[in-house]
Amino acid sequence: MSEVKTHKRRDIFVEGGIDPAFIAGSIAKHATQSAIGGHEIFLGQVRADPVVTSSEVEKRQQVRSIEYTAYRDMANEQMTVIREEAFARWPITCLHVRHSLGRIAAGQLCFFVFASASHRQAAREAVAYVTDEVKKRLPIFGKEIFAEGGHIWKTNS
Amino acid sequence: MRVLLFGVIAEKANASEMTISAESTHALKRELESRIDGLDRMTYALAVDRVIAHEDRPLTGTEEIALLPPFAGG
Questions:
Q1: Which of A4, A123, A135, B70 has most Cβ atoms within 10 angstroms of its Cβ?
Q2: Looking at the partner chain, which of A44, A75, A153 has a beta carbon nearest the beta carbon of B69?
Q3: In this predicted structure, what is the pLDDT of residue A9?
Q4: Smallest CA–CA separation between B49 and chain A, in Å?
Q5: A1-48: per-residue pLDDT in tens?
Q6: Between 1.20.58.220, 3.30.830.10, 3.30.1330.30, 3.10.20.30, what CATH number should domain B2-68 receive?
Q7: Chain B residue closest to A141 (CA)?
Q8: In angstroms, what separates the C-alpha of B73 from chain A's closest C-alpha?
Q9: By three-state DSSP, how is residue A146 classified?
């Protein structure tokens, strides 16, 4: 518990997909924190969704990439609030979040949530909470671009 | 004041920001809906200084306004 610290990074956004090597590096950085007993990670990946676009003729298309944009200042402010909520609610040691901006191809990683704690349950619950709240509360917008051309705007339900 | 546009709203307006004067968020919405075709039929939130305004409130003109279509993070 003595190693609890708040995260100083203010900007969660990265241009392009999230490199698995970056994730490996993030895990490795915790090796010296001996109070940690468990890590929990959520990784969001761009899915090649089949989409039926209805016009006069039904067209089946497949998502090739998502182009993400964000109201960056507001998103980072909201992220600070969510982070504080997570630290207040669970005894986690640290929390790292990244989200992609720009055009991310299907199969690439676009969202990374990583919590560490002494015991697994706190890390698990914090990651589930933060993942859901980021989707609900951060002003991030996604244009789903089809392989055959055209696009629709993604919305989180 | 400066009005930032995002996502499908920026696409419809063909601009990422606009400059508009209005005395309240309600008046501002009406003005924006007259300028951006189809906005009155869209789901969106209005943020004042990066906080979503749920109710009508006065504006001084120094605020940063943003029009936010449904969120799609993750």
A1: A123
A2: A153
A3: 59
A4: 8
A5: 444 455 555 899 999 999 999 999 999 999 999 999 999 999 999 999
A6: 3.10.20.30
A7: B72
A8: 5
A9: strand
> Taking the C-alpha atoms of B50, B54, B56 and B58 in order, what is their torsion angle to the nearest 10 degrees?
-20
- Angstrom distance (rounded) from CA B36 to CA A156: 23
Residue-wise pLDDT tens digits, B27-72: 999 999 999 999 999 999 999 999 999 999 999 999 999 999 999 9
**Domain layout of chain B by residue ranges:** 2-68
For residue B37 the two structure tokens come to 């075709």
> Which CATH code, of 3.40.50.80, 3.30.300.30, 3.40.30.10, 3.90.1170.40, is assigned to A13-154?
3.90.1170.40
- Cα nearest neighbour of A132 on chain B: B74
pLDDT tens figures, A45-95? 999 998 887 666 677 889 999 999 999 999 999 999 999 999 999 999 999
* Residues 11-40 of chain B whose Cβ lies under 8 A from any Cβ of chain A: none
Nearest chain B residue (CA) to A111: B74
In degrees, rounded to 5, the angle at the alpha carbon of residue A32 between the alpha carbons of residues A27 and A33 is: 85
Q: Where are the domains of chain A?
A: 13-154
ipTM of this complex prediction, to 2 decimal places: 0.96
